[in-house]
Amino acid sequence: MGNASAPHRGARRHHLGPAGGPARRAALSNPALDKFLATVGGWADIGVMLRWPASSAPVDAVAPARADAHRLLPELFPA
Q: Is the pLDDT of residue 55 over 60?
C-alpha cells in the first residue's frame, strides 16, 4: 500500500504540508483551510475569504491546487 498512497502524500505535502505549501506558508487557521479545500474541491460555493482579523487562503492558490487534486485524486471528481 505504500506505493499506492505516495502520490496522495505528495499532493498533501505540496499544498498543505511542512515542506512549505502555500497554505502552510500563509499560516492559515483551520477555518481558512476548510474554506480553501471546499473551494478547491468545488464542494461549496463559499470562496476563501474569512472575516477580519482572520487570514484567508490566497485566491491564486486555488487553481493550482484544484488541478493537482483532479490529477492525483480523479476518483473524487467524477466526470
A: yes
What percentage of the chain carries pLDDT values higher than 90? 46
CB neighbour class for 52 (10 Å; exposed up to 12, middle 13-18, buried from 19) = exposed
- Can you tell me the distance from the alpha carbon of 15 to that of 68, in angstroms, rounded to the nearest whole number? 9
Cell of 28: 492559515
Q: Any idea which residue has 474569512 for its cell?
A: 50
Closest CA to 73 of 1, 2, 6: 6
| Domain boundaries, given as residue ranges, for the chain | 2-76
Report pTM.
Answer: 0.67
Unique residue bearing C-alpha cell 477580519: 52
Q: Which residue has the cell 482572520?
A: 54
